[in-house]
Amino acid sequence: MNLFVFIQENLSMTLFLTWEHIWLVGMSLIIAMCTGVPIGIIITKNKELANKVIGGANVIMTIPSIALFGLMLPILAIVGHGLGKVPAIIALVLYSLLPIIRNTYIAIKNVDPAIVDAGRGMGMTKWQLLREVEIPLAIPVILAGLKTAAVMNIGIAAIAAYIGAGGLGVFIQQGIARSHEAMILTGALAVSLLAIIVDLTMSLLEKLVTPRGLKL
Amino acid sequence: MIEYDSVTKVFGIGKKAVTATDNVTFTIDKGETAVFLGPSGCGKTTMLRMTNRLESITRGSIKVNGQDIMDMNPQKLRLTMGYVIQQIGLFPNKTIAGNIAIVPRMLGWNKEKIRARVDELLNMVKLDPEIYRDRYPVELSGGQQQRIGVARGLAANPDILLMDEPFGAIDPINRDQIQDEFLKLQAKLKKTIAFVSHDIHEAIKMADKIAIFKDGKLVQYDSPESILMRPANKFVSDFVGADRALKVLGLLRIRDAMNLSPKNLVQAGTDAPQVLKMMEDRGMKFAFVLKDNKPVGYVSPKLLKYEQGKVEDLVERFPEELGTREPLRDALSAMLMHDMIDFPVMDDNGDFAGSISYKNIQKSILELYYEDQDG
After folding, report:
1. What three-state secondary structure class fits B298?
2. Could you give the C-alpha distances from A104 to A98, A100, A127, A200, B301, in angstroms and in order?
3. Residue among A120, A123, A133 whose CB faces B91 most closely
4. What is the DSSP string of A83-102?
5. Domain-located, residue A216
6. Looking at CA atoms only, how far is residue A39 from chain B in angstroms?
7. How buried is residue B19: exposed, middle or buried, by Cβ count under 10 Å (0-12/13-18/19+)?
8. Taking 60 as the threshold, does the pLDDT of residue A188 lie above it?
9. Cα–Cα–Cα angle for A126, A131, A135, nearest 5°?
């Protein structure tokens, strides 16, 4: 098999590109989580703002990734980062925001109003309510949003190879350019495998962080 | 003590403004239960929610133990009041113990004290701590969950309890039971309670005072007996129902109406012919037979005719035993069921305390009805 021979001969390269891919996706996911979750929580207090924010994130989602890279190029070129990892991560963060914000918003909104009323009536502050009830109850749904974002970004990151961001997309892109079937396949299989593994791991994590009282 | 002074609440502004409560003034005395009663939309829940500042007050003031609630931090104010709602609102991610411990934890109690208090409260609401402490709310039935809701409200031993239709979502059989348990608890704890209800039966059962609301106005604030027998207007009398006299029967105790020294008593050892003669002379239809001051049964002239022995061997047993603490409703029910118009009443030791007849019942109802029409 050509494929195995290729992987054997380029093992360190394969591993390096896989690591680069994971780094791109992981980095963007962390940034998106740190911004998206607080945004999702804040907009639960204001319905109008929520509609605007989620609507805006929806618009970003509809822009094809290759077009987004193209759009950012002239802007980021001003600060000398038109190509490479910076635009890739910015794009990945933007794409992740919608599922993360939307899921956080819905999860917090879906907490039974009676629970919130009881908590407030007992003298809990908004922050205590968030920390002790709303967030623990919302975490499984927030994680589901993170999972959607992660799996989607593994695919989009493969395209980021075209703007020189590295990652497994490099194999696919160069393989196509050289008509090197084994190289294309290696890249494609590795990206798919990565997506499946991430999906399974995050599903498992989702189960683990679901509060016990909700599983019974 | 909770003092409502000209409390007005207006939701919205301009043309859309809705007055939820309109210039309401009344006082809930310390240790008393006031039930806020009325149809939905009458302002009773808004009244309750203003008491712990979940709703703001548009005009007027509410004082708790003499202190204006607007001068207090809302969170601190709420920590001093138990809050129990119909939907219960237990935190599903916390265990039963965790739910009960919410307020004590916010007050900074240490772990040992919280643990002991949780167990004490579980015992108080008749749920075994060993079994329920570490369970989650979803594992409990609705009635059990509301017991936890009540325990959670009582957790930090507040002077005041605010209860918004707390037993409204529980099935009728369990509701009756949990109401009874709560009454027993309240007899010991003597909390000052504001209790919202739309159910006249519940109000009569739970209240020391009933506040009847209509369209945001307080229509009448009085004891259940007075509300039933002397409704302030047609709205109140319609609301309490045409059977209000029957409802009063559930409130009054036999001891309030019974005849303490009935004449138709005979001792167990008396000879039958002697009793028969006495009964015929006085035209008695029947007499209670007492032995060691305990009622053993009754005799009638028909039973004694042609008999020679002692009356105690000839008695008919009473089909039902009535105690001084039982409601008049039970006495009337016994009379209707067994076609008897007079029953002996026993005190807590089973000794004869008096008798209750249909006439006694009617008299006590009429007394209530006419009480302030004289004055």
Report:
1. strand
2. 10, 6, 16, 21, 85
3. A133
4. SSHHHHHHHHHHHHHHHHHH
5. no
6. 24
7. middle
8. yes
9. 105
CATH number, domain at A56? 1.10.3720.10
pLDDT in tens, B286-304: 889 998 888 888 888 888 8
B75–A124 C-beta distance less than 8 A: yes
Residue A26 confidence class, pLDDT cut points 50, 70, 90: very high
**Torsion over CA: B129, B135, B140, B142 (sign):** positive
List the domain range (segments joined by +) for residue A104: 2-211
- Calculate how close chain A gets to B201, using CA atoms only, in Å: 25
Extract the tokens encoding B49.
């929610």
Q: Which DSSP letter does residue A130 get?
A: I
- For B166, the token pair is 């707390």
On whether residue A192 sits in a domain, the answer given is: yes
Tell me the nearest-neighbour CA distance from B138 into chain A, angstroms: 7
Residue A123 DSSP label: T
Q: In the CATH scheme, what architecture does the domain B255-364 have?
A: Roll (3.10)
Q: Mean pLDDT over all residues of chain B?
A: 91
What fold does the segment set B2-251 form as a domain?
A: Rossmann fold (3.40.50)
ipTM: 0.82
pLDDT > 90: percent of chain B: 58
**Residue with the two structure tokens 């990565």:** A194
Q: Give the separation between CA A27 and CA A88, rounded to whole angstroms.
A: 11
End-to-end CA gap in chain B: 30
Neighbours of B298 (CB within 10 A): 22
> Could you state, in order of their start, the residue ranges of all structural domains in chain B?
2-251, 255-364
B75 contacts A123? CB cut-off 8 A:
yes
* Backbone dihedral angles phi then psi of residue B6, each to the nearest 5 degrees: 50, 45
Instruction: Report the alpha-carbon distance of residue B138 to residue B142 in Å, rounded.
Output: 9
Q: Please, which pLDDT band fits residue B16 given cuts at 50, 70 and 90?
A: confident
Which residues does chain B have within 8 Å of residue A123's beta carbon, measured at their own beta carbons?
Answer: 74-79, 103, 106
- E-strand ranges in chain B read 2-11, 18-28, 33-37, 59-64, 67-68, 81-85, 160-164, 192-197, 209-214, 217-222, 265-267, 287-291, 294-299, 322-323, 342-346, 352-357
pLDDT 10s digits, B253-290 = 898 889 988 888 888 888 888 888 888 888 888 889 99
Vertex B202 angle, CA B199 and B207, to 5°: 120
Residue B52 DSSP SS3: coil
Would you state the pLDDT for residue B372? 53
In a domain, A134, yes or no: yes
